[in-house]
Amino acid sequence: MTDAATYASITPRGDRDDFSITDLCAEFGVTARALRFYEDEGLIAPERKGTARVYSHRDRARLAWILRGKRVGFSLGEIREMIDLYDLGDGRRVQRQVSIERCRARIATLEAQKRDIDAAIVELNEFVDLVENRAAEEQG
What we know:
single chain, 140 residues, two-stranded antiparallel sheet, disordered N terminus
């Protein structure tokens, strides 16, 4: 699987006009089935040349958004809302603002979950220590 840096910034590909399903699967480490699913969900819209899907630079950029959003826990609905804001024609101002707000909210949620996980780990370690100490007392 590709790492987070792959999704950090989508580098434009000026060397080509379009991409095949195989190209995007290889670049992003996803399956053809996943790409067809995103198409069915209306998140990407490749053109058709016969039975072949032909993906545009826009589809490629949207796929990067989708994968980044999924990786950090956004629902497909939330991802759709954020990437669809690109088409407002306002120079992406609203898209950026909404994305920033959603990301900050997601960060807050993840930080709260991390605190809960850290507290659970401490409690479990204390319990393990208690059980081990009792076992040692009974044996010793």
